[in-house]
Amino acid sequence: MTDLRRTRLRLEMSREAVRLFRAHGVAGTSGERIAEAVGLSGRTLWRYFRTKESCVEPVLARSLDSFVEVLRAWPADRSLDEHLLDAPPAVDPEADTDGELALAVIGLSRTEPALRAVWLVLHERAEATLADLVAERTGLPVNDLRVHVQAAALAGALRITSEELAAAFLDGRTPADPAARLTEAVHTATRGLDDDDARTPATARTPAGEPQ
Length: 212
Hints:
With about 210 residues, this protein is mainly α. Helices cover about 65% and strands about 0% of the residues. Helix 1 (about 5-25) crosses helix 6, helix 6 (about 95-110) packs across helix 8 and helix 7 packs across helix 8. The termini are far apart.
């Protein structure tokens, strides 16, 4: 079996795992049931995944990889805020479906510790990739403290935004515009403390339209 076929098979099992977890819960879904949903044996599934919860890794990884790819395309003459707002949509026809599945996993992780662990571990790995990108962008060594802090800030912005959107998605609420919300979070993480408004406690701010 080629590497491409293995990757594709893992993704197919991951998608079915998320759908079954969402419909029946993690406790109500066995590894064998996930394998059966894609026409495989349980033995085959366990060759690809350590646990049934780890089956969600490929779907989550696609979501994180898409953010990394957007950052890779960040032009040198534009701010990150501008780039995120104007970034072209994904050309992958499966991106929207996998994005929703990723949100489902992240939402379920609020009450499923094993899924939460998978989500956070993948996020930690993504942070290392972000550090490489920040170092390349700034010309600083990858082990520079500023690089690590900036990468952690970007990763945190993505995690918090993803969890907000996931909560709205699973609760049936209309989520905020993902690009706009992520841009706001990234701005706060990277430059927010330089803004006068950010240094003012929310309770002390004057509502829009009222005299100062």
